[in-house]
Design brief:
five-stranded parallel β-sheet; 20 helices; DNA Cyclobutane Dipyrimidine Photolyase, subunit A, domain 3; binds flavin-adenine dinucleotide; 6% strand; Serine Threonine Protein Phosphatase 5, Tetratricopeptide repeat; mainly alpha
Length: 490
């Protein structure tokens, strides 16, 4: 019997390679609608969320991310019937679905604790109306059934994971964008989105030209794969510029692009030009993304726990003043300050910059890494629960880094990857008159005249304290090339 069904969108704002949509269409419904909830777990905190405890937090997403989400929704709202609901998913979605006479709702399965709690609550509430919630895997390179191990046996080290999947699993081709039975847009949704968009600030003048939506994302990928990708390996650790890295992350995080589609495009680019180390390296980074997804699926709430996957009892500090200086880019360490100011102004900063500031927060200020991760969540245009928390766990030494205690020297990193000081000059105008190498660490007596703060901690001493405290908790540094035994079973 022909029926009416809906696709509940979350981190999958696209029509291509959308397994949930394909499953919905297999039932040959007379009508497919799309629904998005302007509320938890993506837009705000709700009854099943874990709001962060760091001081001064009030919004879950930054205006830059809100802009990107709205643009992505608009891209869909102009092509398909999309309804926006405001409120708690398990309250507003079942009521709406029942009023529309739906027989089923389709969505992509989420693995993180809050997201899956909401999916469970929605499934139960829908059931009371005899409507089923049908969950499908999407948004990853591999399906769980393709992995050469059960999720519970996910390797504890990325390298092992990568070797196993590379050796044994093929990325499936992306599903095509389907033809919909009645793709008539809903003008009210478009109007609501346009009004909201008009009230948001535009992108910062130094921001990459992030424009939300499947079509904007696809056209950027095609441009990036024409040329820039072939030098990715040499440029990827830089701090600024349009093409030093791909900037795919916001589209991937919101699912405007599917990783399988990007992978297929990459293979095409390799066919028409030539595969090289750089094209491989882009795939390698997509595998990091993949690894953190499955890590989140494997570890549940431990992914968000202070002691992390190692259950380490570290005396993290919760010093609001130091944390504030870090957030505002007033630490007195130019590369850290440049990155933190870029993050709050644009919602994005490079991977190298993220590593440096995360290391500074956890290895020099010794502040609770979860404050850092939660702050990133409120700022990043590309926030992705798995990549963010997985990377923070790793940087804090409580995740899957086999070396355990890893740190970044902010001055050395700046010399290596900001070799003319251009990035610092861009974001820390107080230091514009300085040239390299002085710009990497101005002298104490220069700072008052420049109106630039003195360092908020002594780098060497704070690192020594953190190192000592860490290895005491772990009970001993590994010798030679030996890796830290992450878990008892290894
Ligand atoms: C503390 C910290 C927090 C982070 N939080 C996020 C986050 O919330 N969302 C997010 O998408 N990435 C996060 N990352 C990973 C990485 O910094 C960004 O994905 C990357 O900087 C985005 O830029 P790009 O698209 O140009 O990346 P590219 O270098 O061009 O890489 C291509 C793609 O590979 C993936 N990728 C690259 N590096 C990583 C990585 N280390 N971990 C996981 N995936 C990776 C991303 O999807 C990226 O778009 C975080 C890293 C750190 C150190």
């Amino acid at each position: 019997m022909a029926s009416r069904v809906a696709v509940w969108l979350l981190n999958d704002l696209r029509l291509h390679d959308h397994p949930a949509l394909h499953a919905a269409l297999q039932k040959q419904p007379e009508h497919v609608e799309f629904v998005f909830i302007w509320g938890p777990p993506l837009i705000s905190w709700g009854k099943l969320s874990y709001p962060p405890h760091f001081p001064g937090v009030n919004r879950r997403i930054s205006p830059m991310r809100e802009r990107f989400i709205i643009e992505s929704l608009l891209d869909l709202a102009r092509r398909v019937p999309l309804t926006l609901l405001e409120g708690e998913p398990d309250e507003v979605l079942p009521a709406w679905a029942a009023s529309r006479g739906l027989s089923a709702v389709y969505a992509h399965k989420e693995w993180a604790v809050e997201e899956s709690a909401y999916q469970e609550a929605v499934a139960k509430a829908l059931q009371r109306h005899n409507i089923t919630l049908s969950l499908h895997e999407g948004n990853a390179l591999y399906e769980s059934s393709q992995l050469p191990f059960p999720i519970e046996a996910l390797p504890q080290l990325f390298t092992r994971f990568r070797q196993l999947v590379e050796r044994t699993v093929q990325v499936k081709p992306p599903l095509p964008e389907p033809t919909l039975p009645s793709p008539i847009p809903n003008p009210e949704t478009e109007k609501w989105l346009e009004e909201r968009l008009s009230k948001l600030p535009s992108l910062h003048e130094q921001s990459f030209h992030f424009r939300g939506g499947e079509r904007a994302g696809q056209s950027w990928v095609k441009r990036y794969f024409e040329r820039a990708v072939f030098t990715y390996k040499e440029t990827r650790n830089r701090f600024y510029g349009e093409t030093f890295s791909s900037h795919f992350s916001p589209w991937l995080a919101l699912g405007c692009l599917s990783p399988r589609w990007i992978y297929a495009q990459l293979r095409e680019a390799e066919k028409s030009h030539k595969a090289n180390e750089s094209t491989y390296w882009l795939f390698f980074e997509l595998l990091w993304r993949e690894y953190f997804r499955w890590l989140g699926a494997r570890w549940g709430w431990r992914f968000f726990a202070s002691g992390g996957l190692r259950d380490l009892n570290l005396p993290w500090r919760r010093d609001a003043k130091l944390f504030q200086a870090w957030k505002e880019g007033q630490t007195g360490y130019p590369i850290v300050d440049a990155a933190m100011r870029e993050l709050s102004a644009t919602g994005w900063t490079s991977n190298r910059a993220r590593q440096i500031v995360a290391s500074f927060l956890t290895k020099n200020l010794f502040i609770d890494w979860r404050w850092g991760a939660a702050y990133f969540e409120t700022q990043l245009i590309d926030y992705d629960v798995y990549s963010n928390w997985g990377n923070w766990l790793y940087q804090a030494g409580v995740g899957t880094d086999g070396r355990g205690f890893r740190w970044f020297d902010p001055v050395r990193q700046a010399k290596l990857y900001d070799n003319d000081g251009g990035f610092i000059r861009l974001w820390v105008p107080e230091l514009r008159s300085l040239s390299a190498p002085r710009i990497y660490m101005p002298e104490p007596n220069q700072r008052p005249a420049l109106r630039y703060p003195q360092p908020i901690v002594d780098w060497q001493q704070s690192l020594a304290y953190a190192k000592d405290t860490y290895w005491r908790a772990v009970k001993g540094e590994p010798k030679g090339n030996q890796l830290l035994k992450l878990f008892r079973e290894e």
